[in-house]
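Session log. Operator J.P. requested a structure for one protein chain; no other inputs attached. Running the standard single-chain path with token output.
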Amino acid sequence: MNVLVTGGGGFLGGYIVTGLLERGWEVAVFGRSARPDLEKKGVRIFRGDLSDPEQVLEACKGFEAVFHVAAQTGVWGGWESFYRPNVDGTQNVINACREQGVRNLVYTSTPSVVFTGEALRAADETQPYGDNWLCNYAHTKSIAEHEVLEADDPDGLRTVALRPHLIWGVGDPHLVPRIIEQAKKGRLRIVGDGDNLVDITHVANAASAHLLALDALERGVGSGKAYFISQGEPVRLWDWINDLLGRLGIPQVDNKISLNKAYAAGAVLEGIWKVLHLKGEPPITRFVAVELAKDHYFNIEAARRDLGYEPTVSTEAGLVELVAHLGGKKVIRRKSKVKGQKSKVRSQKAKGRSRKPRNTRKEK
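Structure written below.
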């Protein structure tokens, strides 16, 4: 099969490209940078910008499937800086796929599309799109995902959206390096009581889910649907962070700040950054404060049922691999709070099933 991957030179995109090459398929990548490392592996490179419809149209010519992974990510930035690549860029991909006769489009979304500022416990795909947006990334990705699912046509372009949560692993340029940097500088604070449960996703599992989604579309399954993807069992966020830091010999995080104080600080700093047009992002934002303090984990039974997805890299195995890659030399283990966690998760899943939120997805 001939496959194009937008953002194939990035973290998740790179793992998807590797998986496709291992299948013996012909692979091409669309992105803004030259990728001689991928060219050496036989990957075709299309250089361009998602916001340019002509460049996207030319890149999609002759392919049977497209993985649209590229996006503008981050917790801070102006509306236009996110809207153009995430919404306009995605619409350009949809239009190009239709015009060039591409059969399947697998879109990389995010659980943040259902963000409301409230805790999410065992939420499934009936959870409606979010509101009370505190982050332009989340807002624009929700618009883009909706467009992708609305574009689904079983007799033409078949589409599916995946929502992997907090992707990490060897090669991670964002999550883990940020944690390590802030911890080394002594700037990390536990927000809230430190007991919140959060889903994470090893990058190899996220990549596998994408390939399985394409397989499902080829079978006529999953068309026009979105799926949450994770490790299948949430972690206590701050225990997981401290476990990672301990294995790397970095001082663990003990200092706490209440959610109310962190949220208020985020609001003040956001205002300062906007008024003074400061570069970079504030040390804390309202969105980050909420994400660091509250539960947000998801039910992946739909992905298991329809896609045949199962996380094959465990959280422990992924940590061992990552720490070895980062050169961790000593292991500092704190008493785990994970025991007893499952009962809490089960009870909260039961609560989650009792709710029947509005379904905003297109029914097939």
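Operator note: The two ends are 27 Å apart (CA to CA).
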